[in-house]
Specification:
The protein is mostly beta strands. It has 2 domains: 4-85, Immunoglobulin-like, CATH 2.60.40.10; 90-194, Sandwich (Immunoglobulin-like), CATH 2.60.40. The protein has strands at 4-13, 20-26, 35-38, 41-44, 49-58, 64-72, 79-85, 90-92, 96-103, 107-116, 122-126, 137-140, 145-148, 152-162, 166-178, 181-194. The protein has a 5-stranded mixed beta sheet with strand order 9-16-15-11-13, with no helix packed on it. Strand 15 (166-178) and strand 16 form a beta hairpin. The protein starts with a strand and ends in a 5-residue tail after the last strand.
Length: 199
Amino acid sequence: MNNLFYCNRVKVRNKGRIDAPFRLSSRDTTIGRCFSFCPEEGVLPSGACQNVEVIFCSHTLGTFTEDLLLTVTGRPQPLTVTFRCVVPAIVVETPVLNFQRCFLDHRYEQKVQLTNTGPLPACYGVLDQEYEESPSLLIGSSTPTGMIRPHSSEEFPVFLLAKAVGLYASLCLAASSHPRSWEVCALWSVNHCFCPMGV
């Protein structure tokens, strides 16, 4: 999965009576090295405020907390700005799709239900499947992306198209996400494809 960039803003205000040179930085940790700032430093006049862009780029999945450091000249200890990343609580209510018997080159469709049990909105997307040059089974969705509101459920369709006779158990991957995190879940599809006998 490619790195994703997220940008937020920190408002810095000088309540003192003199100009305040400042610098915003992060700790030398795995997550801390994923941050950059614009501007990284500057001078804030007395009574003024300024927005500093905080840019975060990481391919690491999970929930974590990181403290950013705001150093002000003349202040013995830096101020801390806490950055939090959370993973939405997504439950796959339909982990297995049983298509049973299917005919060759006929498209079949079933619904998958996802529930967002957390307090934050989450979006989902069916990931592109990797196929061989001549795949025996095609799986996808006509509406591969969507949004789930907090404490609610959504359904999306998954279609199956068999290109060869056989018994299949295939894996379909879906990604659920909050704007600052991604989590991958799996959906299994089971079907028996056969070719009808001619008269």
